[in-house]
Design a protein that fits this description.
73 residues; mainly alpha
């Protein structure tokens, strides 16, 4: 199966779920793939992006907050 821009695992947790959970969602997608599921994933992707849902797991940060540069004159 070729990778796509989004997927079943991404719309069901993205960075907030474990690698094992992502794998289970990927397997489920392969087993149940259909045009309607693809449309559902596309729609859920749109909603998740707008809502900024599933960007990081609770208590975890993907990247440190930018606090500016430390330039000396």
């Amino acid at each position: 199966m070729k990778p796509g821009i989004t997927g079943w695992a991404q719309v069901n947790g993205r960075n907030a779920i474990s690698c094992e959970e992502k794998f289970r969602f990927d397997v489920e997608y392969v087993e149940k793939q259909s045009f309607l599921l693809a449309i559902k994933i596309f729609w859920m992707t749109f909603l998740n992006v707008i809502q900024r849902k599933g960007i990081s797991a609770d208590g975890h940060v993907i990247m440190e907050e930018f606090k500016g540069t430390n330039q000396q004159n």
